[in-house]
Give the backbone structure.
Amino acid sequence: MTEIKKETVTTQGDDINSVVNARTEKKATTSQTIEYLVYFLFGALEILLAFRLVLKLTGASIGSAFVGLIYGITGIFTLPFEGIFHKAIGQGVETVAVFEPATFVAILVYAVIGWGIVKLVRILSGDKQAN
């Protein structure tokens, strides 16, 4: 659960107490911190996989350092899903567009895994979450 802590500082000036600063701080519990971390990590992976999907669909050149970096990082995450479906290839004048179903499946699977881990953390922590 979220803890709420209030601080009020008062000063005295000409027989009048005035409130100078009122501040509310929220502190996340350990289980919430773990949830945020899991969402961040899986969210970053989802974004990288989405970049891979778009770059493949648009026929981006592997000669580009950015494209090579994205393919290199995400290649290991799409590897378990290779061969489930055949790739669709569209030959253009200058580029070759490729639809990789493995990347699309990876996006779906990792989203479900991330969600499942967060739910498991909530169950194991015993905290009741308000939706």
In short: Residues 15-22 have pLDDT under 50 and may be disordered. The radius of gyration is 24 Å. The longest helix spans residues 30-57. The helical segments are 30-57, 65-78, 101-125.
